[in-house]
Design brief:
Layout (H helix, E strand, L loop, with lengths): L4 H6 L4 E12 L2 E7 L9 E5 L7 E4 L8 E7 L6 H7 L5 E4 L13 E6 L4 H8 L6 E7 L8 H8 L3 E5 L7 E3 L2 H6 L9 E7 H13 L7 E6 L1
Length: 226
């Protein structure tokens, strides 16, 4: 028996939930909405699969705690097992969903929310759950269409919404990786929390930059997508 994280994930109890909506918000990037099974805290994840013979994968909930459904955001990995199947689901199909869990939790305190790619998902949940005050959102992506939920985020955060685009330049975009944007900022706010969400490489690099600028590790919360 596998007692590691993958063993924990593969043993998550799952319940079938009908898919209520599927939206392709950018090419190959989808928001799925399904019936809500439990209450959750903003920042938590669910395990999801299409069929109990395929081990569930974890997805951050990207909807708010007061909404009647649960939404997740994902991008299709062409060589992945589950995401191509999720992209083919039709409204009414059953999705196998676990209870929500996880400790990457938003709160009311001032914070910088830092995301790469689909790592913006938990911040949308936190925003929609009423935790958007005193927050700055720094989102990194390769191309100008990588900034999922940008309309909503622009409206919520205004100047405190920073889009770092590594491969394209454009109006309102910082041209470069989000790690470069952070390196360019010598003055980081004291007594703020820093939330990091995305790939392991991004999380480790950002954590090291923050620490080199005087942030203490207790101020850093991370969620690694693997
Ligand atoms: C806490 C957490 C939260 C997450 N939240 C989100 C989210 O909100 N949105 C989101 O899009 N993703 C999220 N993820 C990632 C998600 O769980 C899946 O890993 C992702 O969607 C890919 O699933 P898949 O089945 O399509 O790919 P998989 O089949 O799992 O493969 C993933 C990649 O790994 C490669 N791979 C697979 N097996 C091997 C191997 N043995 N050796 C080398 N390479 C291999 C594949 O080629 C592919 O590129 C999260 C992950 C975690 C841990």
């Amino acid at each position: 028996m596998d007692n590691g994280l993958s063993g924990f994930i593969s043993r998550l109890p799952l319940k079938p939930r009908p898919l209520l909506n599927k939206q392709e918000i950018k090419p190959g990037v989808y928001v799925l909405r399904f019936e809500r099974n439990h209450d959750f805290l903003p920042g938590q994840v669910v395990g999801i699969t299409t069929d109990q013979s395929i081990a569930p994968r974890l997805y951050s909930i990207c909807s708010g705690t007061n909404e009647d459904w649960i939404e997740i955001l994902f991008n299709v990995k062409e060589d992945g097992i589950l995401t191509p199947l999720l992209a083919q689901l039709e409204i009414g199909d059953l999705v196998e969903v676990s209870r929500p869990f996880g400790a990457f939790l938003g709160d009311e305190k001032p914070a910088w929310w830092i995301a790469a790619g689909t790592g913006v998902a938990p911040y949308r949940s936190m925003l929609r759950s009423g935790l958007g005050n005193n927050k700055k959102l720094i989102h990194g992506g390769r191309t100008s269409d990588s900034f999922y939920f940008d309309t909503e985020m622009k409206e919520a955060f205004g100047q405190d919404y920073i889009r770092c685009c590594s491969q394209e330049s454009g109006e309102g975009l910082y041209h470069g990786r989000l790690t470069n944007w952070l390196r360019d900022h010598n003055e980081l706010p004291k007594n703020h929390m820093f939330y990091l969400c995305g790939s392991a490489e991004m999380v480790v690099e950002v954590r090291d930059i923050l620490i080199s600028k005087g942030v203490v590790i207790e101020q850093v919360m991370s969620e690694i997508y693997f």
